[in-house]
């Protein structure tokens, strides 16, 4: 039996499809029945019989922050893919991020140890590696700098420490640090928001850039690592390093719209994050852009995936194919 936490998210849902399609016995947690509908939608992108595969998953209602309820997930399990996480860059959410990402991961690690789980794969993020320092390329050996990290990145880094702690106590682990994951199904969040934004024919793009990777490559790397003898290692998963301008130039033509052509100026960003702070503290609105995130928009980060390539002889797919597939599914979503 394989356990997938966060099976109703982008990575988790695609991982579930891969596992059940290959005849694996799978269990996953969920919080609401509505969230399982999103998994059904993702399955529809890849098969004409989504219900048949969905019925093969053993669903258990459980929250990562409740160890007593969570324990039933681990009975009879040999491998765990820990994909669950809260994603927010609003400093006001720091305590909630700590609860879900750090304490939730600690709970998973503790239960893996208690139940003798053979191997744990933790899905972290390049946000837990941090930005390049001195314009250097970022590798797994990058020096952590909390002062330049988002609240999300800080909690993912702290969650990794919990996973490393588990390895010191005898748990076999691997960690993956994906870049921005390109995959269909969640059009209002993550990389999906790029497709939604581009489809509206927007005129502005933000400066800077980061690392991108297809959902297929993330799932492929995770499953290969779990099937291997590799342990106590972390791997950056980035196929291409793109500016946001370059990304929109790839997406927009496939949606039959013009790509954004005007770069948001530094003055506009500086003004916006300050106004965003005011509206948050005075009017109680949710933050859209923190100071740390605003500063990061001026940088183009370059992430290197040589380690996964050499360790597994892993070949990344053409990112353009993944973008084309997402554009096709975005267009057909209605």
Low-confidence stretches: none
What is the total tally of β strands? 12
What is the H/E order? EHEHHEHEHEHEEHEEHEEHEHHHH
Structural class comes to alpha/beta
Largest β-sheet summary: 7 strands, parallel
Write the topology of this structure.
Blueprint lengths: L1 E4 L4 H12 L4 E5 L2 H12 L5 H5 L2 E5 L5 H4 L8 E4 L11 H21 L4 E5 L27 H18 L4 E6 L1 E3 L9 H8 L4 E2 L3 E6 H13 L5 E5 L2 E4 H8 L10 E2 L2 H18 L7 H6 L9 H7 L6 H13 L3
Parallel strand pairs: 1-2, 1-4, 2-3, 4-5, 5-6, 6-10, 7-9, 8-12
Antiparallel strand pairs: 9-11
Structure description:
- The protein is an alpha/beta fold and 334 residues long.
- It has two domains: 2-185 and 211-239 and 301-317, NAD(P)-binding Rossmann-like Domain (Rossmann fold, 3-Layer(aba) Sandwich); 262-294, no CATH class.
- Helices cover 43% and strands 15% of the residues.
- The chain contains 13 helices and twelve strands.
- It has a seven-stranded parallel beta sheet, sandwiched between helices. The chain has a three-stranded mixed beta sheet with strand order 7-9-11. It has a two-stranded parallel ribbon with strand order 8-12.
- Strand 1, helix 1 (10-21) and strand 2 (26-30) form a beta-alpha-beta unit.
- The two termini are 35 Å apart.
- The model has no long low-confidence stretch (mean pLDDT 89).
